[in-house]
Design a protein that fits this description.
CATH architecture: 4-Layer Sandwich
CATH topology: Metallo-beta-lactamase, Chain A
Number of domains: 1
Helix content: 25-40%
Number of strands: 15
Strand content: 25-35%
Structural class: alpha/beta
Bound molecules: zinc ion
Largest sheet: 8 strands, mixed
Amino acid sequence: MTIEVVLLGTGNPLPDRDRAGAATLVRAGGRTMLFDAGRAVCMRLAAAGVLPVMLDAVFLTHLHSDHICDLNDVVTTQWVMSPMPKTLRVFGPPRTSEVMDGLRAMLVPDVEYRLAHHADLTWGPQVEVIEVSPGVVFDDDGLRVIAARTDHRPVEPTLGYRVEFDGKAVVLAGDTVPCAGLDHLCRGADVYVQTVLRDDLVRMVPMQRFVDTIDYHSTVEQAAQTAARGGVGTLMLTHQIPTPGPGTADEWVALARQHFAGDIIFGADLASISI
Ligand SMILES: [Zn+2]
Ligand SMILES: [Zn+2]
């Protein structure tokens, strides 16, 4: 096994009993990396055999709430369970520091309580924020992470990531419509994880705020076209909008199949692939 990908949360912002929020685990070269930290991320990490203290880094694709709402749980649980000070590196787009400052402010009472209670705990959460621009953002011992601009306007800037190790590559696209940055990341990748939307279903919802989401997400067909252009091996559909009804997975896959001949995985929480 060279790279393992686990879809921790495949949900969209609408709460669902079976789908946690946006988050994907990638393990490669002895490292454990989390991409986005949506609703219930720590529960799904535990299900994948990972505690926050085991994370080497967190990468954020963008700062929409459904992708970061449980980052505070990752930060506090990593801190409280660390036997000694351990820095959690959080990579993200510009303004990630602003979000982290707010998160730290929210945690002030909790940090005070725990420092007062535990004699051996003499430090607060150790978080290093790295606001990244497109290019290689991580390069260590054969493991590379490359970031590229995606298009989720008016949310900007947003980032997609490509993890490379031992000749294999995995792309974590986040929320985006097809764009040059995404094509750059996908070129020849073994796995491409894309958040997707069914515009045929969303258009039927009598609520403009919901219909607006069509503007800035890849449809299933667009994701499949991006996969085909890049010559990727496997397309993983995640963060499906709207929440798929029971027994409808085949419909989603059939839409992608019209444009992409490779493997297609319809994501459910904890679906995984190892390459
Ligand atoms: Zn978003
Ligand atoms: Zn989203």
